[in-house]
Every structure is written in C-alpha cells, then in structure tokens.
Amino acid sequence: MPRPALLSAQVVKSYRRQRIVDVKHRVVFGTREAIEQVLAACGWKINTAFVERLNLDIRQRVAAIGRRVNTLCQGEDGLRQQLVLLQTYHHFCLPHASVRQPVLIPEPTNSHGSAKQWRPCTPAMAAGLTDRVWTLREMLLLRVPPWPQLQALQQDWREGKSWNRVGSLRPPATVESRTRL
C-alpha cells in the first residue's frame, strides 16, 4: 500500500514507425492538480527526463544491466549488490548540478579561470545526511553493520524476546552482551 502523500505520474508515448505520434500523462498516485502544483514550484512539468537519466546512469555503471553486454551477473544477489553500490556512489560521491549550492564569497581558482561560484553538492548533502562529498575510497572502506540482521530478528521474534513496549522489534543483543548477562 503506497503512502498517502506519494505522488506519481507516468508518461505514455505512442510510436508509429519509430516516431512518437502521441504523448499522454497518466496519474498513478495522487491527483493531477497535486502533482502539477509540486512540479510547478520547481518550474518543471511531467516528463521522463529524470527517469531516463537515471536509467542511463544505471546502464552505464552496472555492467549486467547494459544493453548487449558480454558480462553476466552472478544471480539476483550479485545484481542487488551492484545496484546498492551504484546507489551509494550516486548519492554520496557524485555531485549533482541540480543540488549545487552558491558560494557566499566567490573563491579564486588555481588557474587563470573565473572565480568559483558554486559549491559541489551531492543528494546526501542536500538531504542533510553528510556535510561533504565522499571519495570512492571512503565509501568502499566504510564499515556498515549488517542491519537488519534478519536471522537473529526472526529467531528472537519466534521466541518472543525482542518486543518492546511499542510493539516493534528492538535490535538483538550482541554476542558480547549476551555473554555478560
């Protein structure tokens, strides 16, 4: 079930002899007025540009999804790992022009070019998740705990141990804390 605030539209293109003959906009979630109001605030209209750009990025950066490729993905799990890596790179390492931020005082560059007027910004920076553009090395070396730990959660749920007062699951205790108890 989608969230009530979700707004989604679809562009349906009709082709005849490899040429577009008709374009229709279809509302999937929400109302046409609500979608147009949100897009008008940014000066945008319903179009496929954002999705097409994302599809191109995925095809270029994930070899198993590219068209007419010689590489194979080692199953669904391998594809999922490649997509997670791409998504993390896209959000934390790759600055996007659409979310760049103006510099208050233009900074001189090392060369003879014009002063730097924009600060590169990633989607993660725009969302407030980080304060800088990450390097690929930083992203690859970041140790993230495997969460949710599905097997431990399922086992605790079966035993009825991990339910808190609100009724949601708590993280299972670590091995060290279990041995201390």
SSE layout and pairing:
Blueprint: E1 8-16, E2 19-29, H1 32-41, H2 49-61, H3 75-92, E3 101-107, E4 116-119, H4 123-126, H5 136-141, H6 150-159, H7 175-180
Antiparallel strand pairs: 1-2, 3-4
Describe the protein in words.
The structure is a single chain. The chain has 7 helices and 4 strands, in the order ββαααββαααα. The protein has 181 residues and is an alpha+beta fold. The protein has a domain of 47 residues. Strand 1 and strand 2 form a beta hairpin. The longest helix has 18 residues.
3D shape: extended
Report how far apart the termini are.
41 Å
Strand content: 15-25%
Return Rg in Å: 23 Å
List segments where confidence is low: pLDDT < 50 over at least 5 consecutive residues. 162-181
Q: What's the helical proportion of residues?
A: 25-40%
Mean pLDDT across the residues is 77
Number of H- or I-type helical stretches: 7
Q: Given the helix and strand composition, which structural class is it?
A: alpha+beta
Q: Reading side by side through the largest sheet, how are the strands ordered?
A: 1-2
Element order: H for helix, E for strand: EEHHHEEHHHH
The major beta sheet can be summarized as: 2 strands, antiparallel
User: Could you give the count of β-strands?
Assistant: 4
